[in-house]
Specification:
The structure holds two protein chains of two kinds. By secondary structure, chain A is α+β, with helices and mostly antiparallel strands. Chain A has one domain: Phosphoribosylformylglycinamidine synthase subunit PurS (Mth169, Chain: A), CATH 3.30.1280. Chain A has two helices and three strands. Chain A has a three-stranded antiparallel β-sheet, covered by helices on one side. Chain A is elongated. Chain B has one domain: Rossmann fold (3-Layer(aba) Sandwich), CATH 3.40.50. Helix content of chain B is 21%, strand content 27%. In chain B, the strands form two sheets. In chain B, strands 2-1-3-4-11-10-9-6-7 form a nine-stranded mixed β-sheet, with helices on both faces. A two-stranded antiparallel sheet of chain B has the order 5-8. In chain B, strand 1, helix 1 and strand 2 form a beta-alpha-beta unit. The longest helix of chain B has 11 residues. Chain B is globular. Classes of the chains: A alpha+beta, B alpha/beta. At the A-B interface, helix 1 of A face loops of B.
Chain lengths: 85, 218
């Protein structure tokens, strides 16, 4: 059994309103940072998982992202996977 | 007539629903702890409002995996009537019993106000003898009640006559002013307004009564 570390990124689909992102964007302007065209807020989930091989680790994380970490109706997800030494 | 009210860690409208269904309407009402799977003897089930599992991850995302909801899906498949109020509506969408999703209010505020609503469908008998187009008043209390769905899903809801309630003055940015929808079969209703808070004349209007009575209409 190998140990993997994954980082899952969950982001709102482009068509979904992100009022929190808009509020952060307007705060950025008040900070004096101009030129921000777009600001969208998502989530990052870091996890460690045991699996016999990389393919199986990927399968588990895909299931986890699709069924629990993200709601595919409003969110997209992607992930990076690394073997932990 | 026995109504079940599911209690999750973090539910906070469970006792209000029981007061409304038992105290105001006289239905025998039983609490169902989220770990139970026994729904025997129940005629209808309510998923109450609150913050199940602290709304961690997304509203309703963790509640969706509660043991009681496996039995609830069977109950719905057999035609049992289920009402999801506020967080209960969010759970029903996460569970896939209702389409779409509920996201952060357009204005970011948590809104706690009485709302004017329009009955948009009487297909599934949730509003007793009230007619399509009639106006009712129910309180809302939510920060994440902005109903969103794809254009295809919206068309399907319209074609099936599944949009049950609409806001007259949209408070949260919901698509098509949607405040509540039913499933295709009509036995599941999810809505953001709180009918249980509009059942006792002491606290204001009683337009919520017909929706709780709708639990026993088949």
């Amino acid at each position: 059994m190998a140990n993997f570390q994954a980082s899952v990124l969950v982001s709102l689909r482009p068509s979904v309103l992100d009022p929190a992102g808009e509020a952060a964007r307007s705060a950025a302007a008040r900070l004096g940072i101009d030129g921000i065209k777009k600001l969208r807020i998502g989530k990052s989930v870091v996890l460690e998982i045991d699996a016999p091989n990389e393919a199986e680790a990927k399968r588990k994380i895909q299931l986890l992202a699709d069924r629990l970490l993200a709601n595919p109706v409003i969110e997209d997800w992607s992930f990076d996977l690394q073997t932990t030494p | 007539m026995t109504i079940g009210v599911v209690v999750f860690p973090g539910s906070n409208c469970d006792r209000d629903v029981r007061w409304a269904s038992e105290g105001c309407l006289g239905f025998t009402t039983r609490f169902l702890w989220h770990e139970t799977t026994d729904l025997s003897g129940l005629d209808a089930i309510v998923l109450p409002g609150g913050f199940s599992y602290g709304d961690y991850l997304r509203c309703g995302a963790i509640a969706r995996f509660a043991p009681v909801l496996e039995s609830l899906v069977e109950f719905v498949n057999k035609g049992g009537r289920v009402l999801g109020i506020c967080n209960g509506f969010q759970i029903l969408t996460e569970l896939g019993l209702l389409p779409g999703a509920l996201t952060r209010n357009r204005g970011l505020n948590f809104i706690c106000e009485n709302m004017a609503l329009k009955i948009n469908s009487e297909r599934s008998n949730w509003f007793c003898d009230r007619n399509v187009g009639e106006q009712i008043s129910l309180p809302i209390a939510h920060g994440e009640g902005c109903y969103q769905c794809s254009t295809d899903t919206l068309h399907k809801l319209q074609d099936e006559d599944s949009i049950a309630l609409r806001y007259i003055d949209n408070p949260n940015g919901s698509v098509f002013d949607i405040a509540g929808i039913t499933n295709s079969k009509g036995n599941v209703l999810g809505l953001m307004p709180h009918p249980e808070r509009a059942c006792d004349p002491i606290t204001g209007g009683i337009d919520g009564r017909m929706i709780l009575r709708g639990l026993i209409h088949n």
